[in-house]
Structures are given as C-alpha cells and as structure tokens.
Write a structure and sequence with these properties.
single chain, 211 residues, alpha/beta, Rossmann fold, 4-stranded parallel β-sheet, 6 helices, 4 strands, globular
Length: 211
C-alpha cells in the first residue's frame, strides 16, 4: 500500500504494527509527527471480522474482533486526542463504522455488529467530550464494499454469490460499494467544509439504511 501511495505522488511513513497497546498508538502518532512536524487529522480504518453463530463461536474469536475494531480505535483516539488537546489543535477524527452498527439483520455477525455499534457510540461520545476543544469526530458507515475482507463475495463461490445477492436485494442503487465510493465522504469529513459537523455516522450505503 505504501508503494502504491508513493506511485500516485503521495507521501507515506508506514508503521508496521497494530495498536494493541497505548505504546503502539503513541509510536504511530510520534512517527507522523517526526515525519511531518504536525498532526491535524486521524483516520481510524483498520478492523477485522470473524463470522460465526454465537453458540458456535470461540470466545477468542469474539475478543479478536472487539480488540481490532473497538480497543484499537479507542487507543488511537486516546493517543492522538491527547496530542490535539495539549497542542490546542482543532483536529478532525474519522472512524470507520458499518451499516451493521445499526442493523443486525445478518446471521453470524454477533461480534462484528456489536463492535460497529460500539464504534458508533465512541464517535458520539468523543464528539461531545472534545467539542469544547474544537475537535470534530465523525464516522463513515458503508454497506458491503469490495475489500480483502469481502473478496469472497465477488468470486464464483456459491456461498459468496448467495450472500452478494442477499445484500444487493437491500440496496436501492442495485450494486455493492467500491473503494472509490468512500472518497467523497472522507474528504468532506476531513475538510473545513465539515467544521460544524460532529458526532455523526454518515451512511455511504447505496440506500441500504433507507428501507
């Protein structure tokens, strides 16, 4: 990914770690500060999913999803938020949620749906906690998008095709999302145009949540 960003003319300083501790989060924050001299925005977009019916799911699989999707986000927000407040930066924080934080109508997603519901709550409470510092906190909530996590739905596998068609039946625009569909909303929530927008979960879902 770093090579791809550079090939497009961008600058990137990769840190090969998950935020499994506050020290990890601080290391990522400090790497950005060392490279660029300042920090104005935080995008928290890493995560995972382990599907399985609750009566069959191993406890460690549940915990892995919660650690990646909730604990890691909390640690990154804690680390960078402390910097924003200390340096009096009116920063912008953007989290990645999902329509599954609002809708539970899919079997086998008890861990994922719960984690994204927590992401929505974290977005709202941080917005109220940090509003007095001029820091905005919002989330993007997509429906099914093409990614490494969902690649199995875009192939010829029978289960993947069935899952894909079930998702399409709920989307008025009659297609699944592509990564490019997220760009406009992300740019808006990180730009001055959204300075009076905070605590919001913005659905980029082809109309999934409209019906």
């Amino acid at each position: 990914m770093a090579d791809e960003i550079r090939s497009l003319g961008g600058a990137v300083v990769p840190v090969y770690a998950r935020p499994e501790s506050l020290a990890d989060a601080d290391r990522m924050r400090d790497a950005a500060l060392a490279a660029y001299g300042r920090l104005d925005q935080l995008v928290i977009a890493s995560g995972t999913n382990k599907a399985g019916f609750i009566h069959e799911m191993a406890e460690e699989d549940w915990q892995a999803v919660m650690d990646a999707n909730v604990r890691g986000a909390w640690l990154m927000a804690k680390s960078v938020g402390a910097h924003f407040i200390e340096q009096k930066v009116k920063g912008k924080v953007l989290l990645m949620s999902s329509v599954r934080g609002r809708h539970g109508n899919i079997s086998g997603y008890t861990a994922y749906c719960t984690s994204k519901g927590a992401t929505d709550a974290l977005t709202r409470v941080l917005a109220t906690e940090w509003g007095k510092y001029g820091i905005t906190v919002n989330a993007i909530a997509p429906t099914v998008f093409r990614s490494k996590l969902t690649a199995w739905m875009f192939g010829d596998d029978e289960l993947g095709q069935a899952t894909k068609q079930r998702s399409l039946s709920r989307i008025p625009l009659a297609r699944l999302g592509e990564p490019e569909d997220l760009i406009g909303m992300a740019l808006y929530l990180l730009a001055p145009a959204s300075d009076f927008c905070t605590g919001q979960v913005m659905y980029v879902d082809g109309g999934f949540t409209a019906g």
